[in-house]
Amino acid sequence: GDVYKRQRLLIYPDYYKEVMMLKLNKTTDYAIRVVVFLRKPGQWKTKIEISEEMGIPRKYLQAVLDKLREAGIVDSTRGINGGYTLKKEWYDIKLIDIIKTTEAAVNINTFNDTEDINTKQLKSYLPVQSYFDKVQNEIEANLSVTIQDIVNNY
Hints:
Oligomer: single chain
Distance between the termini: 43 Å
C-alpha cells in the first residue's frame, strides 16, 4: 500500500501534480469579490450594494467584511454616508493576502502545517517532501499577484 504509493509518486510526480487541487472556501471567493468591487479609490459602498452587485448573501457578507477589516484590507464607517472601502490601494493587495485572511491554511500538505519535531526529522528522509515544497513555493508565487494585475490582465 504505502510503499507502492510512495514509489508511484517518486516515479510519476507529474501525475500527482495534475491531480492535486487547492480548493478555496466560499468565504475566500466572496472576499475576493468584495476587494474587486471596492477597487475604485475613494468610493464607499454599502453592504446592500456589495451584496447585490457581487451576488453575496447579506447574512454572510458581514463575516467576510469583518475578516477583511481585521486584516487591514477594508475600512468601514457608520452613518448616513457610511459603508466600506479599501484601506489599501488595490495595486498593493495580493491575492495571497486575501487567501491568508480567510483560509485556515494555505499549505498543500501537513508537513508544512505542523511544528511536530518527529515530522521535521522525518521530513529530511522523504524525497517527496522536496517535491511538495517546490509545488508549495510555486503556488505561493502564483498567488502573490495583485488584484490589479488580475483585473487588468485576465
